[in-house]
Structure formats: structure tokens, C-alpha cells
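User: Can you help me understand a structure? I only have the sequence.
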Amino acid sequence: MKALIVCTNHDTFPNKTNKTGLWLSELTHFCQVLDRQKIAYDLVSPLGGVIPIDERSLDLKDEVNRTYYEDEVFRQRMESSLKPSDIDPKKYGLIYFTGGHGTMWDFPDNADLQKITSVIYENRGTVAAVAHGVSALLNVQLSDGKRLIDDKYLTAFSNMEETLSSMVSEVPFSLEDRLREHGAHFTKTRIPFTQNIEMDERLVTGQNPASAKKIARKLVEELVEK
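Assistant: Let's start by predicting it. Here is the structure, written out as C-alpha cells:
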């Protein structure tokens, strides 16, 4: 099985001067689990090319972040990510959407990524996403016309976490509210920023950066059982 990992290209906020983009640990911690299991993966982004890193997430005291950030081969992959048009979804058994606030602008309405996601899911593959990356699933439609997330249990970056991050005025919409409006059953931890994942058949979602490694471990566990 091969995995497809999706990252944002968007790096600006409407008002704040600091740069957004990928939340680094949501990529690195996930990749570490896959690499240890020798599961191959490709990196793709809505436009292809450079995947920007949210400045606030560039924590190199995090050993996993540092290992991947300082790996020239991995950094080259982040600077030359594939475009959706490069992707044959039938080659992948898993698609994983990383987060970071940038995803709120370029994930929800990307028709190419939506199509890739629906093909992987309907080919019995697994769809996974973490934090703001869950925004990619808002408008994914299956061949029967239903939304992928309709009547599904999932989690994502919560309203409380957005408030505590002082980002409510920056984001284009409330992710928690929009997921509920689109028919999902939204769950969250009582304590913000603590690890939480939700599984509903072949849909696996994580609430926040702390959840990325747990998602990967759960996915690997499921693969081993198969």
C-alpha cells in the first residue's frame, strides 16, 4: 500500500503579518510512523511545488521535527510536491490531509483533491485528516451524490482551540460549525489541545497537532490486521 499525504500551499493571513502554512509536526510525526513501517508515500499540494511551513510550528526542539527538517532529501520533497494532476488515485490505499491554518483557504474547494479522495475511498481505501486539514473533507462527494462526511463521526480543530489560539478573527469560517452544517457528528475532547482521534469505518480524523502520531499508529494497526 502507498499513502498520499496532502499539504497546503497557502501561507498568508488576512490581518496577521506572520506566515501560515503547514503545521510541521502534523506531517513529520505522521511520516515517522510510516517510515518505520516502510510504507511509501508521496507529497502533494493543491498547486504543487513549495509547501510553506507555519512559522509558529517550526519547533526544532521537537526531535522528530528537527530530524525531518534537517533532512535534505525530505526538504527537497517539500519544496517540489506533486500537483493533483500528477496523481493516479488508484495507486493509493490511503490519503492523509495535514493541517495548519493555510489549509482553510486552499483545501475546501479544490475539486481535484475532492475527486482523488472520493476515488481512494470508494476503492476501499482510507481517508484521514488532522486538525484544519479536515476542511478538505467538507465538500467531498461520493458517486451516489452524498457527502463523504454525511452522518459520519469525526473530529477537527475545535472552536475552543481556535479561540485559545486567538485565530477566530483570521479564519474564513468556523471549521467545527461548518462540519456540523454539512452533516457530520463532531466530537472533541473536554481539554483543548489534548490528543483525540475519531474513527468511523474508513474515515480517521484527529483533533489537533497532538493527534497526528496517533492517527498514523491507528492506520498502521488497521493495515497489519488486514
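Now, to help you interpret it: Helices lie at 24-36, 63-69, 72-79, 103-106, 111-122, 159-164, 175-181, 212-225. DSSP finds eight helices and eight strands in the chain. Let me know which part you'd like to focus on.
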